[in-house]
Amino acid sequence: MVKLRLKRCGKKQRAVYRIVAIDVRSRREGRDIRKVGFYDPIKNQTYLNIPVILYFLEQGAQPTGTVQDISKKAGVFM
């Protein structure tokens, strides 16, 4: 099963997250299937590749709660 979840990047105390499609059994920094966006909570910036996100959702991927909230703010979910 595939999930859309956050993958932590950046320096200490300066976390930046990539939004990735990843297998459920993989760890947080594990190998991802595809990068679909990023989220910077400090600058409050978000970039989402919406066609790719919609493709993975159609294939049955489940977003985590945080990714779902970020996507709602961007207008992916109504």
UniProtKB/TrEMBL annotation:
<dbReference type="InterPro" id="IPR020592">
    <property type="entry name" value="Ribosomal_bS16_CS"/>
</dbReference>
<keyword id="KW-0934">Plastid</keyword>
<dbReference type="InterPro" id="IPR000307">
    <property type="entry name" value="Ribosomal_bS16"/>
</dbReference>
<protein>
    <recommendedName>
        <fullName>Small ribosomal subunit protein bS16c</fullName>
    </recommendedName>
</protein>
<dbReference type="Pfam" id="PF00886">
    <property type="entry name" value="Ribosomal_S16"/>
</dbReference>
<dbReference type="GO" id="GO:0015935">
    <property type="term" value="C:small ribosomal subunit"/>
</dbReference>
<dbReference type="GO" id="GO:0009507">
    <property type="term" value="C:chloroplast"/>
</dbReference>
<comment type="similarity">
    <text>Belongs to the bacterial ribosomal protein bS16 family.</text>
</comment>
<keyword id="KW-0689">Ribosomal protein</keyword>
<dbReference type="GO" id="GO:0003735">
    <property type="term" value="F:structural constituent of ribosome"/>
</dbReference>
<dbReference type="GO" id="GO:0032543">
    <property type="term" value="P:mitochondrial translation"/>
</dbReference>
<dbReference type="InterPro" id="IPR023803">
    <property type="entry name" value="Ribosomal_bS16_dom_sf"/>
</dbReference>
<keyword id="KW-0150">Chloroplast</keyword>
<keyword id="KW-0687">Ribonucleoprotein</keyword>
<dbReference type="GO" id="GO:0005739">
    <property type="term" value="C:mitochondrion"/>
</dbReference>
